[in-house]
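Model: You mentioned two targets. I'll fold them one after the other.
Researcher: Yes, keep them separate.
Model: Target one:
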Amino acid sequence: MKVYDGSQTEQESVGQPERKKVGIAEYAVTTDEAVLTTSGLGSCIGVALYDPDSNTAGLVHVMLPRHDEGEGARAKFADTGVEILLEEMERAGASRRHIEAKIAGGSDMLDFSGSGSGIGVRNVEKVRETLDSYDIPIVAEDVGGDHGRSLRLESQTGDLVVKSADQSDTRL
């Protein structure tokens, strides 16, 4: 049985890890056994960061490539979302030199640009560029296409499970 208390945290039955939901333009960091989840990734990107040495995991759900393209929370944008997630992970004890990234999303489900550079493609490019600027390697990814995704980041292992609308679960 699942119990939902109205916050962003859902506690499953006894013995199961805590599940923390990350909504659009939100992020979460954990150093315990929590499972971080997000859903509704179309053109949005889920960026999962993990430091195996400190057992620190973080997940951000970004919607747009650059902060100067709109207003809203820092986590809404690829450039500032990655930045704030990295800052919070370091506050929790992670070391930047040990952090690895896994990314998923960036579909162009409704590409009206006519140029092939819709928001999903631009989100992927900006996430890659931002992670590279912080010397954070991307060790796995599931990006592009024309289908939605949901993610589950298992904080004990750093495994990112991607549920896609067009295929079975993929473990990155």
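Model: Target two:
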Amino acid sequence: MASLTVTVAEVLPTGSGAQFLRDYLCGETITAGMTVYLNASSVWMKAQSDGTAIEAGSSNFGFAMHASLAGQPLCVQTGGIFVVGATAAPTVGAIYYIGTTYGAINPYSDLSSTNKITILGIGYTSSSIDMSVKRYTGIAVP
């Protein structure tokens, strides 16, 4: 499997369990559907599993719901069912992780030795991810 290719126009929250953080600004240009983390300065940045623990989501992470530029507010979905769209086509039952490319959504097979394991969720339908198991593990790929 390869990283999911998210179509910006298909990014949506769904269901009554969707949870969001709206109180923080962007530290860089971000597009809808990217994985993001909250850095030490409390701004959203593109997440990556091959950087530091905080870049891999040890403080807080989720999915960007819209595009935003540095210094602008960003709404981030942190729980519930996240719609990545039919173009991304997640595999039902597959577990997805923060990827090695900034903002990417990857299956485990795309991670490599020393990457930090941060679970984004499980493929729920062919167009969505269930974030109910979302968590930073603190474990590196052996």
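Researcher: Noted. Anything on target two?
Model: Residues 24 and 43 are 6 Å apart (CA to CA).
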